[in-house]
Please model this.
Amino acid sequence: MIIGGGFPVSIQTMTRDALLPDRLSAVVQRIEALRKRGCDLVRFAVPDLPTAELLGSLSTVTDCPLVADVHFDYRIALRCLDFPLAKVRINPGTIGDEAKVRDVVAKAKDRGIALRVGVNAGSLPNSLDSEPDLALAMVTAAEMELEILERLGFSDVVFSLKSSDIGHTVKANEMFARKYDYPLHVGLTEAGPLVPGLVKNSIAISDLLKQGIGDTIRVSLSGTEEEEVEGGLSILRAVGARRYGVNVISCPRCGRSTFDVKSFLEQVSDFIQGISRPLTIAVMGCEVNGPGEARRADIGIAGAGTRAIIFRGGKVLRQVPFEQAASAFRQEVGRLCEQG
Amino acid sequence: MIIGGGFPVSIQTMTRDALLPDRLSAVVQRIEALRKRGCDLVRFAVPDLPTAELLGSLSTVTDCPLVADVHFDYRIALRCLDFPLAKVRINPGTIGDEAKVRDVVAKAKDRGIALRVGVNAGSLPNSLDSEPDLALAMVTAAEMELEILERLGFSDVVFSLKSSDIGHTVKANEMFARKYDYPLHVGLTEAGPLVPGLVKNSIAISDLLKQGIGDTIRVSLSGTEEEEVEGGLSILRAVGARRYGVNVISCPRCGRSTFDVKSFLEQVSDFIQGISRPLTIAVMGCEVNGPGEARRADIGIAGAGTRAIIFRGGKVLRQVPFEQAASAFRQEVGRLCEQG
Model:
């Protein structure tokens, strides 16, 4: 896969699924499900050599680009580089010995596999402890890594500069992007639980993407991989960087609604997530804004008294009782998708 | 309560809780719980006169600022204005008859209650159908309402200009804020389910707040009121507009973690939500970034092997087995809060 250089921004998630011999087929299924939701890259922590073997096996049975996340141990990185991975994340500065770094870099170059250097504000080199500007400290840490790689003539690198703070992360990425042309993987780290984590990631990542900074993104959450991917996709759509799948316009909860939008959305959620063509769907409970918004969508449903009205292209397709709303809606969206 | 004019940005939610005579005490409890989470204003749809009576009763038993959401019927607005509400939302242009508008405005002025005029892209006047610039159409619709109110010498108005589209909403609010000094209630409408809805609201609302636009906000979601409030609070914190309660820095899911951060956060979630003093708490699973981030927080917990380490001010307070982590953490946070 191609990262950077004007190619579309990719969505990454990192999985917690343990790579165990008897779980490989379950992991493959999970990866395929994540891809259907819009995920482009899946990253795995590779803490030891047996895990590297398993990631290798996985890479031969899925065509999803995989990333190995390696820390400290160059032997693990070397083994990962035997397999058709998209990237290996390892920070040269933490390998410890220039000869070992040279081995890793030589093998990455030979195999045509990119390295990702990931600078995190939580684990900066001690030499930067006295730098009061955390963003500058992050950029300096990245430059220390870069210096090692450039000395070895290696440039197939993706950088990331992450902190749990929006301001520091945005500033560090802006500073780095002004000085260097290397592709950037952007996101916050340790952003927190779903709601605050999504808010912080949305603000930071959209700010950078709107400036043209960012080639891959990860919305890291103390949540599920599915939420990370859905969050990433929503951000790319929001900044106009991706048209993929369904954009749902739906009512907030309010006392005006006669139609239970939340429960309807839950009923059709899996169905909607499975649609890959760009489609705007309106799900409206309320007579005040409902029909107006629903008419502008590709297809829409709105409550009106005790019945639901399904709209398409400004025309009412059918009226059904609430209990038939989900099945009728699936049917009409299916028809629309078939007709292209 | 005071809205606009440099006062802090307020968080609003709109409840779906039905106002029924036998549910009033449950609604009061719900409102109090929402306030504890950071909510400043709760809005209720008032579709008929009996609901107006119930909202009136509610306003006498809670000191939470309440907003009545009224459509079309000036009699409902008039009845609402008998009670100590913070705002009545009604669009003069939809009342139908200038004499009726005059009655509403006179009573609002007499009672010192603000009106909120809410323009939604989904329900613009038909006369604006031919305007291709939706943001301009929204501003024009607001100006049509404003003209009626200014003619009647009424200026205690909060405006909102909402659409389900980030670009239109941001542009309409920017245009309006450049021309007028009226306070603005900002947010998207029909933003969709939790994940995409939160992403869109975060980007739109933070963009406006960073420009100094927005006096009250609502993160409208097809979700729960609690999620709306938590989302609003997270946005205000992210743009530096609010220091309130706990900021959680926590690990994303990743295979490096030995400590189950998600399940730990679920165990302490209610406890954390109940803390009103500003506090940064780090919950880290991973030895790579964990201790570094946790040390910078007011208090932190990080997994290390089979035990959890609780940090405070850069020092380890105690080490406990995972199963005692939640209770030990509650204890230490409690101590920290007591000591001020």
Q: What stands out?
A: Chain A touches chain B through 74 residues (CB under 8 Å). The CA atoms of residues 19 and 55 of chain A lie 7 Å apart. Chain A has two domains: 10-238, 246-339.
